[in-house]
Every structure is written in structure tokens, then in C-alpha cells.
Amino acid sequence: MLGAYAAREGIPLCDFPLDGDLSQATWIDLLNPTEEEKARVQAATGLEVSTEDELGEIETSSRLFYDGTAMYLSMPLVAKMDGMPADVRPIGFILSREKLVTIRFNRSRAFHNFLESQHRKPMESGEPIDIFLSLLEAVSDRMSDLLENMRDELDAISKQIFSEAGTGAKHGRKLDNELQNVLKRLGRAADLMSSIRDSLLGVGRILPYVGQIAATWIDRENRERLKSLRQDITSLSDYDGHLNNKLQFLLDATLGFINNAQNNIIKVLTVVSVVGVPPTLIASIYGMNFKDIPELNWSFGYPYGITMIVLSAVLPMVWFKFRGWL
């Protein structure tokens, strides 16, 4: 899908007719572009539109380079629409003084929010660098929202793990199912936080590179925006690290509960096996087929044997209970 935008009637960013001359558009947005759309953009702008595989390369030299006319920038971008699993795909920016081209392969809430904001409060300037920085600010805001959601999710998991009404009041299969569910939630949170970290790292690499290459044609206001964005990304990266530490703590705690549950099972089996030894020994003694066993001819021999067996089972259990082993 191809979208194009340019200044019109005093409004810095308006929809550009798709049947018009794309060389006159300020921003061209390609979403899952077809070969025909890529060829059209390349013919209109003279800029090379990369494929998804090319944008996904992790070498810094592949993600950030300048050909003397335009900067070619790429980074992983996590897209998390409401009710949908996270989707991480590379996104490309081609930035020059006259034009901005974006190449993306998933529907990003950040881009959606940016375009929606233009209907409420249009930009003061529709220059490519202004659009580019506004998009990165929208990405930063979206990453902040996702981290806040992660914070709430981890808080909820923490309460579920440590509350007395949670794991402490559940036993057996119900506890096992709850702990397995917690592990799945922690796994999903870890995947999303890792994707957010990759996106923040990508933005963090792009900002100083753009500031260096475009130093001669970025005005003072946009230099301040670049500086502010770098501070925001650093702050979000630090907070992501804090949440990652909390997630690791919750994971360790959950595994600890699982280990305790397994130990309790082993303890019960051990007690049962120990308690069963004395009665078995007594029953074995009186089950021997020797002729001269005194109790065989005793009228109270059978009740006596049963009593001994019961006491030999009960007394160890009382002792274990007294020692706090049960």
C-alpha cells in the first residue's frame, strides 16, 4: 500500500493524490509495498527502496549509511495493536533535505497515532526532517505506552504470585495450572520487552547518526528535538532494564514456588514410605510360618497384632508432626 503526503493550502501535511506526480510529495509511506509500487517510487524520487530482508540486516553499516544525497536508516519496530500479539518487523527511513520515504511491513500504532494527530493539531512545518522527528517521537510515545502496560502486567503477576489468596491458598493441580499460566504470561512479557528493547536500541542508533550527517541543514529547534528524543530513549531504555530485572525476579520466584511444590510432593512420598516400614515389619514377623510363635495360640493375639501395626504407623506420624516435618 502506498500513501503520499505534502503541504497544501497552508496545511503542512495533507494527503497527496496517488495518481499525481510522486516527485512532488514530501513524505511517501510504503506499507507492504508491491514491486510495482517500489518501482514507481524509485522512478519518481531516484531513491532505492530496500526489501524487508535488506532492512532486517543487523550490521550497523547496513542499517545506517549516507550516499551523499540521502540517509538510509533502518531499525526493528515492534507493532502491538490492541488484542493482537506483538509483531516485530524492520522499518526503513530514507531521509533527504527534500523528501522522506518510509518502508514498513506491519501496521504500527505509532504511525496511526501520528496521522490521527495531524487532524487535531497540524504540524507547524511540513519539512521532511520535521516529519521524520515527529514519527520518531510517536514511536517513542508508543514504546512508553507499551512499557507502562508491561509494568501493569508485571504488577498483576506479582500480586497473583505473592498474595495469600493466590498461590498460598492453592494446592495440587490447581496450583500447578496457575503457576504454568504465570510462566506463560512471563514468557509473553519477556518477548515483548525484548522487542521493545530492540526498537529503542534502533532509535538510539539513528538519532546521533542523523544529527551528525544532517548537522548543516537541521535548524536549532530540530537539534533540540533530537537532543530531547535521545534523552527520552535513554530514559525508556533504563526503565526497560528495570522492568526486565523485575521480570527476572518474578520468574525466579515462580520457579521457586514450582520447586517447593515438587519438594512437598517428594516429602509426602518420603513420609508415607517411612511410616509404612514399621507396620510392614510387624506384619512380616507375625506372618512367618514358624511353629513356636507364642502369639499364635494366644486368644488376644490378633487384636494385639493389629494394635501394634496401627501404633507403629501412627506414632511416627505424630513424631513427624511434632517436629514440623508435616
Model description:
- The chain is of the alpha+beta class and 326 residues long.
- It folds into 2 domains: 263 residues, CorA soluble domain-like (Beta Polymerase, domain 2, 2-Layer Sandwich); 47 residues, no CATH class.
- The protein is 60% helix and 13% strand.
- The chain has a 7-stranded mixed beta sheet with strand order 2-1-3-7-6-5-4.
- α8 packs antiparallel against α9.
- The longest helix has 56 residues.
- The chain is rod-shaped and about 115 Å long.
- This is Magnesium transport protein CorA.
- GO terms for molecular function: cobalt ion transmembrane transporter activity; magnesium ion transmembrane transporter activity; nickel cation transmembrane transporter activity.
- It holds the Pfam family CorA.
